[in-house]
Write a structure and sequence with these properties.
Blueprint (H helix, E strand, L loop, with lengths): L36 H15 L1 H27 L2 E2 L7 E2 L3 H7 L2 H32 L6 H13 L2 H11 L6 H8 L11 H29 L3 H9 L4 H12 L1 H16 L3 H7 L15 H11 L3 H52 L1
Antiparallel strand pairs: 1-2
Length: 359
């Protein structure tokens, strides 16, 4: 059988027909092609936006902290190992500044004053804050006004509040001694005696910070589920029992937070005793009866010019705060572990009861 071949215009046979399928450039290999210049720049900018921009946002904080927090801390530690006076050069002394503090009666007196003032101001302050928060947690008429009123002392200037209380506790013409005279008591030397002066300073601190802590406790109390109170009421618990058995355990982390913050504030107490003492406020009274660690540090650094000893006091305060924070962290962990064991024991008992009920 003869086969005729139809020649094309050039005399060559027609091209073979290609099978249907994806066209050239549309296969899997085409996806691996290098992107164009604009798309490559766009993908690079996208990767930089994901990885680098977050660091740019947080960089101002870390730069500020390094300049005004970390560097002064390290530099103060360096100064504490030297003998430095205002306008003079530093001389290496090693641990001599710390050993001199260990044998200084002024340091131990300031440490004891800091502890006692912190104790008699922090404990009543937090207890009163708990009571105020518990009252403000109820639906009282004018509740918003009372919440603003308890915060007003915190918004008041330390200088203004301390000067007012210094007049109230004045030995000669103060209102406190006048009121004590009305009921037959002798005038109290609030400024020159040790314990009266410390009590007066503690009153100032308590008045200033009670409302602030009360609002913190109030915010924590409002987050407690109402079902717990309803269940306690059905079991016959009174309001006082509900406060002890429901409210206090529920806001325990907040209480520990306020204890830590109040302890730090008591350790750094400076403005109230200095302004209360007037002309002898820096030395904590005529007999150093209410001189705190902060006042002693200020006196060493800017009155006597011993910057090395002042830096050593600052680092001792830091170590004390770290020690107190570590103890409170251990207490928090122990409470957490105890609650965890109690919840596991409760869940185990509930599981056994369900098994018995099922059998």
């Amino acid at each position: 059988m003869a086969t005729s071949v139809r020649a094309t215009g050039g005399g060559s046979p027609p091209p073979a027909a290609q099978p249907p399928g994806p066209s050239a450039g549309s296969g899997p290999g085409s996806r691996r092609q290098r992107p164009s210049g604009r798309s490559g720049l766009r993908s690079t900018l996208y990767r930089l936006d994901l990885k680098a921009v977050p660091y740019l946002f947080i960089a101002p904080f870390f730069l500020t902290f390094a300049a005004f927090g970390l560097f002064p801390l390290i530099y103060t530690g360096w100064l504490s190992l030297h003998r430095v006076e205002l306008g003079g050069s530093a001389q290496w002394k090693g641990m001599e500044n710390y050993t001199s503090l260990a044998t200084s009666e002024f340091f131990w007196n300031a440490l004891a004053n800091t502890f006692t003032i912190g104790l008699i101001s922090t404990v009543p302050q937090l207890l009163m804050a708990l009571g105020l928060a518990h009252l403000l947690n109820y639906k009282l008429r004018g509740r918003g006004f009372f919440r603003v009123a308890v915060l007003a002392p915190y918004a008041t200037s330390i200088a203004a509040a301390t000067l007012v209380f210094a007049q109230l506790f004045n030995t000669d013409y103060g209102l406190i001694n006048t009121a004590l005279g009305w009921v037959g008591f002798e005038p109290v030397a609030w400024e020159s005696s040790k314990w009266p002066a410390q009590i007066a300073i503690s009153v100032i601190v308590t008045w200033r910070w009670t409302g602030y802590n009360a609002l913190i406790y109030l915010a924590a109390m409002q987050a407690v589920p109402q079902d717990l109170y309803e269940a306690a009421a059905l079991d016959g618990a009174s309001r006082w029992r509900q406060f002890l058995s429901v409210t206090i355990p529920s806001i325990r982390p907040t209480i520990l937070f306020t204890v830590i913050v109040s302890t730090i504030g008591a350790t750094q107490l400076f403005g109230e005793p200095m302004l209360f003492g007037g002309s002898v406020g820096i030395s904590g009274g005529s007999g150093n009866q209410f001189q705190t660690l902060s006042l002693l540090m200020y006196e060493k650094g800017w009155v006597t010019g011993a910057l090395g000893q002042a830096s050593a006091i600052a680092w001792v305060m830091l170590l004390l705060l770290l020690l107190i924070g570590g103890v409170q962290a251990l207490i928090t962990r122990s409470h957490h572990n105890r609650d965890l064991r109690r919840s596991r024991r409760t869940s185990g008992l509930a599981g056994q009861m369900r098994k018995k009920a099922g059998s």
